[in-house]
Amino acid sequence: MATKTRQFDAAEYLDNEEVIAAYLQDALDDDDPDVFLLAVADVVRARSMTRVSKDSGLGRESLYKTIRPGSRPGFATVTRLLGALGVKLAAVPARKSVPAQKVAAKAAAKPARKAKAGRPAAAKAAKAAKRKTS
């Protein structure tokens, strides 16, 4: 007996805003902008092309052109489209920052450096700069 398979369609699983937001965030994490456009196209199909077209104020033909891989939609178009899909863009740090408590703890743990007796800090800095240029 032959096994029947069918092609995977992400649109079938995009049934609420949280799932849609997570799906689009994963697509944004990819360096290829076409991955994001393909993900938006999946969400548009899940929500109905006609409904998204009406909610975003974009004509159906413009909507198809906007979500086509290789297109370069403007920021205003993307935000209108995402608004119609029930999500928005948000800025987050690109890398994890060190919590302020850890920074303060490290600073408190370091012993304070004392200047050598008889040598002002400015003179020490001048001498170091002179060595670098020589």
TrEMBL record:
Annotated signal sequence range: none
GO molecular function: DNA binding
TM helices/strands, residue ranges: none
Annotated spans, Disordered: 108-134
InterPro entries registered for this protein in UniProt: HI1420, Lambda_DNA-bd_dom_sf
Entry superkingdom: Bacteria
Name of the molecule in the record: Probable addiction module antidote protein
Organism: Dyella marensis
Organism lineage string: Bacteria, Pseudomonadati, Pseudomonadota, Gammaproteobacteria, Lysobacterales
